[in-house]
Amino acid sequence: MKEIRKSYCGLCHPRCGTLLHIENNKVVKVTGDPDHPISRGAICERGRLMVEHLYHPQRLNYPLKRVGKKGEGHWQRISWDQALDEVAEKLASLKEKHGAETLAFTHGTKRTYHWDCRRFFNLFGSPNTCGVNTICMCPSYATEYATYGGMIMGSEVMGARCVVLWGNNASNSSPLYLSAHLAKARKNGAKLIVIDPRRIKEAEQADLWLQVRPGTDLALMLGWIRLIIAEKLYDREFVANWTVGFDELKVAVEAYTPEKVAEITSVPAELIVQAARMYATTGPAVIPFGYGLDKQGINATQCARGRAILRAITGNLEVSGGENFSMAGDIGKIHDWEYLELNDTLPASQRAKQLGAEQYPIFGFPGWERTSAANKKLPEGYVAPPEAWHSNLAHAREVMNAIITGKPYPVTAAITLANNPLLALPNTKRVFEALKALELYVVVDYFMTPSAAMADYVFPAASTVETPELWLTGGFCVACPQAMEPLYERRNSYDFYRGLAIRLGQEQHWPWETVEEVYDHCLEPLGLNFKQLLNQPGIFGAREYRRYEKFGFGTPSGKVELKSSIFEELGKDALPQYREPVWSPKADPTLTAEYPLILITGSRYMPMYHSEHRQIEAARKKMPDPLVSLHPATAEKFGLAEGDWAVISTPLASIRQRVKLSDAMDPTMVDIQHSWWFPERDPKLPELFGVFESNANMLCPDDPEFCSPEIGSWPHSALLCRVEKEERSK
Length: 730
Prior knowledge:
By secondary structure, this protein is α/β, with parallel strands linked by helices. The chain contains 29 helices and 25 strands.
């Protein structure tokens, strides 16, 4: 029997509509859904992996309990009830002994729901959720809320007359959306400026390409701001009426002349001037979010501030074809993820125990409480309140240290869901020591990963096609249909957390038996339920512009804070200030003599997504080995050729990757692929799927001097390294 069922893809961030082609109750092919209101039939390389992902022989299908020592690879299959009973019993015992803060969690990039995790932790009493949020969009999220009261994920690229692609490799990171929208904007005559250390595909098509030295983007931003102010290219009416701190900003950027910025960034002064003028005079203009800025370490937070300030002073906020963060039409009536998090249930006494919040207050409860209070001054449904899982977290380094040392208090248990901390967090060996030291480690995942191999209990996660979802943004809400019952004993994250919650006395706060019932509740204000929404294209709100003229901005002052009162109140730089990265040619010439090349990691490459898809044959055929990209002149200098295995070293560690020659970067640079492990290898220690062999995070430090002082973002780029030919083959 053959049939076609509507579904959606969740193998990266968007929830693109798909059609599952089914024969004899088995999916045999996936194609794009031409009737989907957002993706309109498009599907990328990752989406085509869904069949293999769904039926892969290495998928986790049943709950497993560790037998023997950690990392030995011996497991016992048990039931969900037994697994949840035992985990809940152990959590209750550890809570009684050490307090609720003894439980931590590591976040990943959104593969599943996140509000359910935060709801569970708030009710359990622990403030210690942490993870990759610290270097992935969330620094921008927290910073933009402090600056103008919302996060811009809705840059209206197709309506813009100038697009600045800053630290954003759109063709690899967003091929169906940003890349496609950019192509339409260019067809309509929009100017394109690309700022990237590498000559990415978009740089080859750009009007201007600024090949910035890694880690110096903030200096370039400050140079743009100075020139825009000095040449009076800013929107004087908007600045006068809707900003605070302009005079202080003007003083703060005075030193960043084109010549000074050129010296710092390696971008020619005349190109800096030309690009700044093009952006400021070709409106409306947009600078879409780019992950490249969040992973720069010491300057990451102020990079987000610099981008926010540029958007504001040029008058591109909340305008057609510009940068928008308010919610459209009836979208704001829907009960959102912050509503579901139940943040108010965590008492102040527990909030105060959040690890790292004293050092990095912008990204903990101190910052979140202030942005939330400012948001509450706006009419309900105008701008979404800041979600805690996006902007209110413990710091991963401090969580790992507490696990290892027991200070400032014991952290003895952790849950990992939709994350692989050995591949996601820096300083991999310390993360490994922490996972070894946990008394209780629980993992929910699709596959047995290196991190899962260190767990005490492993639960099988349902694929996106096996569970429903609500795709909710500031502009639309689309119901994502569950196409099939979960195979074997896979379940979604809501079932996992609700199962634990009921066993731990939280039952009254989890009244909905299924996640679909949760979505029914979310849609109640619109008089809809989830099934009804499935039968219509979605909810699309009419966009209103310049609504700040009625309501102001969701900041303490009600205006765009070019000088941030929240930053100042929490003892951090209220105005952006550039800092030279710790490991850089200018900061440490002695170290540079030993490590002469500038290292960047984290570059996107299809069809992999972070540490996922390494076991999927179709993906590995396209990307069989981890690659280090070198300029041909650099490779020749160090005796390397295409295909050689090279050893890449920083002062922290060494890894191996295969050489790929590319003239896309400067000869002083090295670009290595991130998140590599080898599912085909031995899962037991010491091999542990080869997690220490080619993993870029082995090379990345996270000590305080490397991290942004406001949020604690660690560096995945702007590092120093050396590259040598591997003497032995493996």
